[in-house]
Structure formats: structure tokens, C-alpha cells
Write a structure and sequence with these properties.
Elements: H1 2-9, E1 16-20, E2 37-38, E3 44-49, H2 53-62, E4 63-65, E5 70-77, E6 97-98, H3 99-106, E7 109-113, E8 124-129, E9 135-139, H4 146-156, E10 166-170, H5 177-186, E11 192-196, H6 201-208, E12 219-223, H7 229-238, E13 254-258, H8 265-272, E14 277-280
Parallel strand pairs: 1-3, 2-4, 3-5, 7-9, 7-10, 10-11, 11-12, 12-13, 13-14
Antiparallel strand pairs: 4-6, 5-8, 8-9
Helix pairs in contact: 4-5, 5-6, 6-7
């Protein structure tokens, strides 16, 4: 690892760094903290390495570049979220920032997926492609340890993802509903939520119905969901503005449904009386 970082340091005009299923060997217990390598000319960083999270930590925090660098990442992380910046971390740079800070400051959408078609067999994966969308995706492993998954979600609520405006949940189960609510309330700029093939949707929407909730969700999309009519109507009613009530709540402005078996035309009409835009795809 020190030799690899020294080689990078000797190439300040490097513009493209591509590592496909490769990278330096890194043994944290053997290496002293590495000095940050600044690559001011770097324009593209492509790294596919679903092997070990210590190397993810070392490279994404050990290389600094301009915020405009293009990314393609598919890397291993642990529940400590090595690829993202945590709240309170002092990573102050003028022109060049650590790659992890660049990612955290660019992404507009955070996707969480338990999709069983991914390569994440026994580890969490962080995926990010700046050429296709400003979206970070975290895949949960096929052989998920409940403690690790809950720890990751808990830590995610303390990441500095201030630019994230929407959260997409894909194939997420019902076991972590409480932490998903915590996450929605912790990210101050999240206004949109989408649920696709999720079994957590009933519990999550019921939790968001709490009038004391501090979330800012104003748009919710359901795809292939078994959400019940009374559940989503209760949410819309709880967020409806009342001229005689000064409670400061964020009203729902958009609801969309795709392949939702229990959402009928009657349900849609009831929702349209409460929400300005209701769409069935």
C-alpha cells in the first residue's frame, strides 16, 4: 500500500485512475496512517473491488481530488460506512477533497437494496456511478447479519449526506422499520420516498403517520406494493393542512402507485381530496 500511494504521489498530472477487481494489498495492522495523496488533475476514478472494506477506507480517504471528479464505484463497506463522511468529521480542504467527501457532497439520492440479484453475498456493497445518476446505492448482503444491518442503518443516520433529497428502498424487509424512520428524520433535505417490492411499506407508512414526526416527506411512490388503502389514506390525512390548526407539518404533494394490488379507483379518489397530485402508473 505505501508503494502504491507513493506511485500515485509521483503522478500529480494523473487524469484517469482505473482499478478493475484490483488494488494494492492493505493490512491496517501493519501500516502506519498514510499521508493523503492529492491528485489535482484527476478527472475519472473507476474502481470495482468487492473484496475488503479496509482498502475502501484507505483509498477513498487517502486520495484527494476536485469535487468534479467522475466516479464509478462498486466497493465493499462494513457497517461503519467507510465510503462516506460522518457528521462532525473535520475534512476541510480548499480545492481538493478526499474522494469520500466528494461522494457525500454530490449524491442527491440514497438507495438501500436487499435485492437478491446482486453480487453482495456476505458483505455490504457501495455502488456509485456519477455518469448515470447522482445516486448512492448500498446493497445489503445475501447472508445478512441482523446486527450488522441494523448497525449500518443506525450509522447511516449520522452520515453527512446533506445533499440527499430522496430515498429509494428496494426489496427492503420489515425488520428495520424503526431505523428507516430514524434515517428519514435525520436527513434534513429528504422530501421524496420510493418503495419498490418492499415488505416494510406498511410499517414504515404507519410510522410516518405520527403527527409528531419531524420528517419532511412530501412525495411517496409505491411500486409492486401491498400497501393497504387505509394506511396511505391515514398518512394523507395526518399531513393535510388545517387552517384552524397551526401545527407545522409538511403536507403530501405527490403520491404514485404502480402495480399496487389493493389501491382501487375509489382509493385514488379519496386520496385526491387530500393530496394535490395522485397518479396510478
Amino acid at each position: 500500500m505505501p508503494q502504491f500511494m507513493s506511485a500515485l504521489r509521483a503522478c500529480p498530472q494523473l487524469q484517469v485512475l482505473r482499478l478493475d477487481n484490483s488494488g494494492p494489498r492493505f493490512f491496517p495492522e501493519r501500516h502506519c496512517p498514510l499521508e493523503t495523496v492529492v491528485l489535482p488533475a484527476l478527472r475519472s476514478f473507476h474502481w470495482v473491488n468487492p473484496s475488503g472494506f479496509p482498502l475502501t477506507e484507505a483509498l477513498l480517504r487517502g486520495i484527494a481530488a476536485q469535487r468534479t471528479v467522475r466516479f464509478l464505484l462498486y466497493v465493499t463497506i462494513s457497517d461503519e460506512l467507510e465510503g462516506l463522511v460522518r457528521e462532525g468529521e473535520e475534512l476541510v480542504f480548499v480545492e481538493n477533497v478526499p474522494l469520500c467527501q466528494a461522494i457525500s457532497s454530490i449524491a442527491r439520492t440514497l438507495a438501500l437494496s436487499e435485492n437478491r440479484l446482486t453480487l453482495a453475498v456476505n458483505r455490504h456493497i457501495l455502488e456509485y456511478d456519477s455518469d448515470t445518476a447522482d445516486r448512492i446505492t448500498i446493497y445489503f448482503p445475501l447472508a445478512a447479519c441482523e446486527h450488522d444491518s441494523r448497525s449500518l442503518l443506525s450509522n447511516l443516520a449520522h452520515c453527512a449526506l446533506y445533499q440527499v433529497q430522496s430515498i429509494a428502498l428496494i426489496d427492503m424487509g420489515m425488520d428495520n422499520t424503526d431505523l428507516l424512520v430514524q434515517l428519514l428524520c435525520a436527513l434534513p433535505n429528504v422530501t421524496a420516498l420510493s418503495l419498490e417490492y418492499c415488505t416494510c411499506d406498511e410499517g414504515l407508512i404507519r410510522a410516518l403517520t405520527d403527527p409528531h414526526g419531524v420528517h419532511q416527506i412530501e412525495a411517496v411512490s409505491f411500486s409492486h406494493s401491498e400497501i393497504q388503502p387505509e394506511t396511505i389514506i391515514s398518512l394523507a390525512q395526518s399531513r393535510a393542512t388545517d387552517p384552524e390548526n397551526s401545527t407545522d407539518v409538511t403536507p403530501l404533494r405527490h403520491l404514485s402507485f404502480e402495480e399496487c394490488a389493493f389501491i382501487s379507483d375509489e382509493t385514488l379518489e379519496s386520496l385526491r381530496a387530500l393530496v394535490s397530485e395522485v397518479v396510478q402508473l
